[in-house]
Amino acid sequence: MEEYGKLLDACPNQEWRTIIALARIGGLRCPSELQRLRWQDVDWKQNRFLVHSPKTERYAKHSKRLVPLFPELRMELERLRMESNSECMEYIIHGLQGTAWSLHLPFQAIAVKSGIGTIVRPFDNMQMSRSNEVERMFGSKKASLWIGHSERVMIKHYLKLKDEEYASAAEEATC
């Protein structure tokens, strides 16, 4: 999460802070899920938002999912809503509507400015990191539902062990 904070600090505006929060904290696929996200999809009272997923819509009951408004994400969305006069705008990420949604180069500029440097497949990596965090905090069922992939896909492609987990197992192992 230290890198997440550095990325936010290096963002040129609140819209980019929100893009990074939605990718890293919300676990959204970028740009496809980000592109469809509307202010009406955010349920402030119930603390969750609706994500429309073009990647999984071909599977029964997987065209959309509800994701919690995690505190770090809610804060960035509220800031954007206050700054952008959202009542007049349909989409949350308004500045990229009608463009090619090329996020890679602007993101890399933010990563370099932050001191992190170039990140390979940054949006995939942010989703994978969040998937691992959610799985550890809330379990695999919720991680699968909130991040938007099956448990089988999560195990095969997303779940990674931390160095600390190997060290802890080595210390606790008894024969």
Q: How much strand?
A: 5-15%
The CA-CA distance between the termini, in Å, is: 36 Å
Q: Output the CATH homologous superfamily.
A: Intergrase catalytic core
* Overall structural domain count: 1
Compressed to H and E, one letter per element, the order equals: HHHEEEHHHHHH
Q: What's the CATH topology name?
A: hpI Integrase, Chain A
- Shape, please? globular
The Rg value, from CA coordinates, equals 17 Å
CATH architecture: Orthogonal Bundle
Low-confidence stretches: none
Mean pLDDT: 84
**How much helix, percentage-wise, in residues?**
40-55%
Structural class: mainly alpha
Structure summary, number of beta strands: 3
Largest sheet: 3 strands, antiparallel
The strands making up the biggest β-sheet line up spatially as 1-2-3
